[in-house]
Design brief:
mainly alpha; elongated
Length: 247
């Protein structure tokens, strides 16, 4: 995190410039989303990212603006990990995001959310997929109020910018997962598999992965579904690693 101080006449504006996604505030992340959506207004972006009044930004010379924007270049690539959600509560609702490091997310919940996340990535024109993905991730404070269909309907009417922000946020979450569990979430695919995915893109077959994880413990299927996702990932990652070592 870098400290930023802007002085204009007798006024001093102090703020912080994040150097990683996890250091960002929710407002700063939403500013970054504007970059990925395209057509970003640079003055608006600087105001939101650095918490500066618009009149101060307008008074800056071109070199100062360029310097500030240079410090945000890393945000243009979604190649750095992040383990938290920036939209902690869906606007206009009580639906809450998972905690840091997918806290309290069950394996079943993650598999459903990730399946629709990948399906939307393949079919970005189908916004219903995006809504189901978000509805699977976010939850009501009380379990009895956590109606999936109701959440999907709410997400359908939600601001598109917020929905896209959650989608991009999950890309960063998956980057973090690929670092924590590299065998389960590989970043470098075999060349023939990568080429096949280009010709025939498809989401991860979580049903097959779950069946392999479950093995012969069919009687405990519900227990496996309710297992915390990170606990399951740790076991899956270890099994895949050990299997490759043997072969």
């Amino acid at each position: 995190m870098k400290n930023l101080k802007v002085t204009y006449r007798r006024k001093v504006f102090e703020t912080q410039l994040p150097e990683t996604w996890n250091e960002m505030t929710g407002e700063q992340f939403m500013a970054a989303v504007e970059i990925w959506n395209g057509g970003v207004d640079k003055d608006r972006f600087l105001c939101r990212m650095f918490s500066l009044p618009k009149n101060i930004v307008l008074l800056m010379d071109d070199f100062l603006r360029y310097t500030l924007l240079e410090h945000t270049q890393w945000m243009r690539k979604l190649d750095k990990p992040c383990s938290r959600f920036f939209v902690e509560t869906l606007p206009g609702s009580e639906y809450e995001s998972p905690g840091m490091r997918l806290q309290n997310v069950t394996l079943e919940q993650f598999m459903l959310a990730d399946n629709y996340f990948q399906r939307y990535a393949i079919n970005p024109g189908n916004e219903e997929l995006l809504s189901v993905f978000i509805a699977a991730l976010y939850h009501a404070p009380k379990a009895e109020d956590d109606d999936m269909q109701k959440k999907v309907e709410f997400c359908n009417g939600m601001d598109k910018t917020v929905r896209v922000a959650v989608f991009f946020n999950f890309i960063l979450i998956r980057k973090w997962l690929s670092m924590a569990y590299p065998f389960l979430f590989p970043t470098d695919e075999e060349s023939d598999e990568a080429e096949n995915r280009k010709r025939n893109p498809r989401p991860t077959d979580w049903l097959a992965i779950f069946d392999a994880f479950l093995g012969d413990d069919v009687a405990f299927i519900e227990r496996y579904k309710r297992m915390l996702a990170l606990d399951a990932f740790r076991l899956m990652n270890r099994r895949i690693r050990n299997s490759r070592i043997k072969h």
